[in-house]
Amino acid sequence: xxxxxxxxxxxxxxxxxxxxxxxxxxxxxxxxxxxxxxxxxxxxxxxxxxxxxxxxxxxxxxxxxxxxxxxxxxxxxxxxxxxxxx
Length: 86
Hints:
This protein is mostly helical. The protein has helices at about 10-20, 40-50, 55-65, 70-80. The longest helix is centred in the middle third of the chain and has 14 residues, at about 40-50.
């Protein structure tokens, strides 16, 4: 979903993310930008990528940040996390 007022995560994704990171996810659009992600978000996204892959890591970042779809895609790609899905 591209509407910033609607959650980008399905309930199944929310449950999977919470199971992997061991706690509730950050609120929708609670983090501003990608340049200075809080340590907890960085740790979450790295664990999600390692355990479940780049799609879930991307979805989590898109949910918790106010960054655009393209910026999150570039962020994930710049880390080499999207090679398996492109």
